[in-house]
Amino acid sequence: MARHLQRELERLKKRILSLGAMVEERVRTATRSLEQRDLARAEQIISTDYEVDEREVEVEEECLKILALHQPVAVDLRFLTAVIKINNDLERIGDEAVNIARCVTLIARKAPLDVTLDFRAMAEKTQSMLKSSLDSLVNLDLDIAFRVLTLDDEVDEIHSSMYDQVKELIQEHPHRVGYLMNHYLISRYLERIADHATNIAEEVVYMIEGEIVRHGKWEQQEG
Q1: Which residues contact 101 (CB under 8 A, 6 or more apart)?
Q2: pLDDT tens across 97-136, in order?
Q3: What is the reported pLDDT for 214?
Q4: Would you say the pTM of this structure is higher than 0.85?
Q5: What CATH number should be reported for the domain holding residue 8?
Q6: For residues 215 and 214, which has the higher predicted lDDT (pLDDT)?
Q7: Which residue segment(s) compose the domain that 30 sits in?
Q8: Domain count of the chain?
Q9: Pick from 188, 202, 122, 200: which is nearest to 154 by CA?
């Protein structure tokens, strides 16, 4: 029975990592569609959102089946609990990629405004956080997980700066409020993706250590 449980858990791990890879690629594609004002690429992200939803349901059902059939305890139970939460975060990240793509479809249909709103640094940091959070899951690596937690504040600061920039630009270009607000929303969606990546890293810490490090508790421990 124990050997069968371990096979089930290993298969589940492969499923959650496959979903992670899918979501990671969608975030990358969504941000690339923004850089290139690529309407077709953005619309593809929107039209295939169901694929992420279906994978998320499959992973959740697999978790519930293992819980019901094997009634795992200790580290195996922690793993399943963490996977259920990570699964939800990945689905939400997929939703945020769709939200970015929807903003891109609106932006791409409008005449560009001669202003500088550079999302590259924020997108790179956010994607790096997501990749690292998944790497920490693959390798069960505490150091990588804690590194993700330290990056969240940097993304928050960029988001705050973007808000200030958009606010000033709206005052300068009051006839382009909708266009500029869609840029602000993209910043907010990237910031949310970073939050979800942080959640994943926190769950990896819980999976390995059995310690809950949400709400800044890890900072107290570090201090």
Answers
A1: 30, 33, 41, 42, 43, 45, 46
A2: 999 999 999 998 888 888 778 888 999 999 999 999 999 9
A3: 67
A4: yes
A5: 1.20.58.220
A6: 214
A7: 2-222
A8: 1
A9: 122
Residues 136-183 pLDDT 10s? 998 999 999 999 999 999 999 999 999 999 999 999 999 999 999 999
